[in-house]
Give the backbone structure.
Amino acid sequence: MTGQVIVDITMSLDGYVTAPGADAEHGLGVGGEPLHEWVFNDAPPNRKVLDDMFARSGAVIMGRRTFDVVDAPGGWSDDVGYGAERDQTVAPPPVFVLTHSAPETWRLGDRFTFVTDGVHSAVDKARAAAGDKDVVVMGGGETCHAVLTAGLVDLLNIHLAPLVLGAGTRLFPAEESKRIRLELVESVSAPATEHLSYKVITQG
């Protein structure tokens, strides 16, 4: 049995995954921290969503801009990493970074593999590493959308934050793109978010 490929990302009501000004210092943009309020408020339904996703993750895919955030001095550490404050002493899942060119150095050792030959290659490598667990695409918006439109996603998890940001990094581009049909498989109301899980049905 093989796992699923899951896009898992937090989004504002108007479709943004960061506020404006996102960079290595401001991973969620300037003033974008309320997007992830649900991650840190420790409400039982939010904690369960995080615990379940952490347990089922066999490999992670992220884009280069997200990597630059987690590799920055204020990013991931030995105590806080994938899954936020989940136990990082348990071997964290390997991370495949979709990028045009690999950096010469980075902070967090061999948990990162840099993939420079496209989204299909990144998913293939992540699937091989994940075994019977899931591959989780965690960001950013451009990378999540690229994997979706490539037809490689089984499940889309949206953590819908009660915010209207007005601008920032979109999950779905403003210009025309592929149509994707979804089927809602779970909805969990929780403090600071609505957890929505959709099965990807068809594309095109």
